[in-house]
Amino acid sequence: MAYKKVLEKKAEEVRRSMSAQKAAQLVSRLDVPSDEGDLSQQHHEEWIFLNRNTIDMKLLREISDALRRIEHDTYGICLECEEPISAKRLDAVPWAKYCVTCQEAIAARIALGENVEEYEEADR
Question: Regarding predicted confidence, which is higher, 40 or 62?
Fold first, then answer.
C-alpha cells in the first residue's frame, strides 16, 4: 500500500530529526553557563527541545497507530463515524484517524472546553 511507504518514510524523518535535535542539545550543554543570562538561555533551549520532542513523539505514536490500522485493514476508516476517510485527506495527513467532518466536530467540542479525553490526540 502506498500509504504504508509514506508513513514509514515520515517516521524515519521524524526519528532522524529527533536524533539531530538531541545531538545539538548535547553539544550546547557542553558549554558551562557563565552567568544567569546564559543559564536562562540554556533552560529556554532545553524547554524548546522538550516541546519539540513531545510533538515528535506524539507524531511517531500517530504514525505507528496508522501502520497498525493498515495491518488490521482498518486504515482509512474514520474512528468516529466509521465512514471512509477521503483520499485527499489521507494524502495531506496520512496518519489521520478521523474524516474531515468528524475532525472538525471534535475540534469544536475541544474548543468549547468539553471534556473529550478520548479525542485528546485527534489529528490536526
Answer: 62
